[in-house]
Design brief:
- With about 90 residues, the chain is an all-alpha fold.
- Helix content is about 70%, strand content about 0%.
- It is built from 3 helices and no strands.
- The relative contact order is 0.06.
């Protein structure tokens, strides 16, 4: 909205376009980092909750807790071994 308001005042000059484009790029770049940070926090929270559930349930198998560290072939092998599917 800032560009729509300031454009007529600066006659949509090249400098005005450069400033608006630079500002938009910086805001977009920062938003990407903000979203990634939020997703990482969410993923950590989900993993902690799942780990707590695994530890709380007596007899729960925990051999796939560190599944995200496996290579794809190891994941497939582990899934077949526990009959969990993909």
């Amino acid at each position: 909205m800032i560009w729509a308001v300031t454009g007529p005042f600066f006659a949509y000059s090249d400098t005005w376009q450069l400033i608006i484009n630079t500002g938009t790029t910086i805001v977009t770049f920062l938003m990407v980092f903000l979203i990634q940070s939020t997703q990482n926090r969410d993923a950590k929270a989900v993993h902690l909750k799942l780990d707590e559930l695994i530890h709380a349930v007596h007899g729960a198998r925990n051999n796939l807790v560190k599944d995200e560290l496996y290579a794809l072939a190891e994941h497939h092998h582990a899934a077949q071994a526990c009959d969990c599917g993909d």
